[in-house]
Amino acid sequence: DKVCANEEMVMAEKFFFFCFLLQGVCCRDYSISLPEKIAALSGSCLIIKCTFEIEEKYDNELTEKATGVWLKDGTDVNKKLVFSSLQKSLIKGNITGKLKEKNCTTVFYDLRSNHTGQYYFRIEGTNELKHTFTQDSVSVNVIESPHKPTVQLYVEQKEVQDQEEILEGSSVSLRCSAETLCSSPPPALTWSSTPRIPLSDSSRLQELILISDLNFTATHHQHKDTFTCTITYQLQDKNKTAQESITLHVKYAPKIFSFSSCTRTDAAVCFCEVDGSPSPDLEWHLSGRPVTNSSNTFISEERMSSTVLRSSITLHQSLKHTSTLQCISRNTHGNASQLLQLLPPVECLNLLYVLIGVASGALVVIIMCAITNIYIR
Ligand SMILES: *[C@@H]1O[C@H](CO)[C@@H](O)[C@H](O)[C@H]1NC(C)=O
Ligand SMILES: *[C@@H]1O[C@H](CO)[C@@H](O)[C@H](O)[C@H]1NC(C)=O
Ligand SMILES: *[C@@H]1O[C@H](CO)[C@@H](O)[C@H](O)[C@H]1NC(C)=O
Ligand SMILES: *[C@@H]1O[C@H](CO)[C@@H](O)[C@H](O)[C@H]1NC(C)=O
Ligand SMILES: *[C@@H]1O[C@H](CO)[C@@H](O)[C@H](O)[C@H]1NC(C)=O
Ligand SMILES: *[C@@H]1O[C@H](CO)[C@@H](O)[C@H](O)[C@H]1NC(C)=O
Ligand SMILES: *[C@@H]1O[C@H](CO)[C@@H](O)[C@H](O)[C@H]1NC(C)=O
Fold first, then answer.
1. What sign has the CA pseudo-torsion 83, 87, 89, 95?
2. What is the position in ligand 4's atom list of the atom closest to the CA of 171?
3. pLDDT, tens digit, 9 for 90 and up, residues 326-348
4. pLDDT (tens digit per residue) in 312-323
5. Is the CB of 296 inside a 6 Å radius of any atom of ligand 1?
6. 3-state secondary structure of 57
7. Whose CA is nearest to atom 5 of ligand 1?
8. Which of 126, 204, 276, 335 has the fewest CB neighbours in a 10 Å radius?
């Protein structure tokens, strides 16, 4: 019993092996290779890459006279035919592949939204060969406007998210990539920025993806600058565009103070303005000690923008002529400080001028007296 079962198994194996061989050698069947789905821009073209196989016995029918046919949303030749290489049809196009070489690559022109649908290929020979490839079809989607490109931000060669920090001085690469749809001329990518700065970029095509890199070194001037990548298709009647933007967030230590000064009447009033990202803090130091709000000191702060802070200090107190005033600014990326000149009060100066005036007057009188004296003697 057991031996019998074993023999059956061996027989079955041999049979399957035989079938496998047969299929490989002689039983070539109909098949087609098509993309699953493709997008096309309304008013533009579409290329369907396509190759097929037929039963070997019909190979001799694939001559120059063979006809390629496309059916839409069904496989009934009488009702669903939208393109035939033999005659003028509903869709303008051309079979650019050589049917003789089993290449059914097709280009359609001037697509409209009503061309969206499922497309089936059919091959017709000169005699008996007439076959619709119903197993596989391509889904065509006609869109009115192109899809947005994708913008990626790389800092020191590493991809980061938009809001992540870019340190001043680091190398930045903005990469724009977009799928390319059939069009003549082919689409182009361009970079622009606000505020406008000269940009040099280079575009290249990688498979069917168009890529444009913008490389530069981050400076604090670029904080909050917006970079926009635009894809442009030049169609007969109009241009179709789509764009994507990115805003940079550059971090930097407080800069050279853009504005600092003191005026002095009955009280000393000093200003300090500092630029940093993230927005810095500001501290006042009088003769090396930190000063805070108190009865005779008044400190006010004003944020001029997301990065600029202005502070003023009013000192209602007698200051020694050796007193020094300093404003110190900090953020997470560093610190900076500025020494301010505490000029003597205006009244003091006026008194000084009077004294100088009086002294020089007296000197003139003394000299005159001396000269007169000498002359009299
Ligand atoms: C169709 O494509 C072939 C091969 O590229 C070309 O020779 C022919 O001129 C095209 N016909 C039309 C109508 O565009
Ligand atoms: C089929 O024909 C198209 C258009 O002529 C060509 O670009 C493509 O390379 C051909 N494909 C194959 C597999 O030969
Ligand atoms: C699509 O619509 C256009 C008009 O916009 C018409 O001329 C054409 O016959 C339609 N095509 C199909 C396949 O229905
Ligand atoms: C820009 O930088 C990227 C990566 O950071 C690099 O792959 C690319 O070659 C650079 N392009 C130019 C024009 O320097
Ligand atoms: C389309 O864009 C091109 C290049 O950007 C330009 O030269 C042309 O004038 C534009 N055409 C229309 C109709 O706007
Ligand atoms: C100092 O006090 C004034 C009035 O109370 C207030 O407006 C100001 O914000 C204070 N300054 C600081 C730095 O806290
Ligand atoms: C910031 O100040 C501290 C002292 O308060 C100093 O040790 C440090 O070096 C400063 N950092 C920078 C970046 O200036």
1. positive
2. 5
3. 999 999 999 999 998 876 655 55
4. 999 987 777 778
5. no
6. helix
7. 96
8. 204
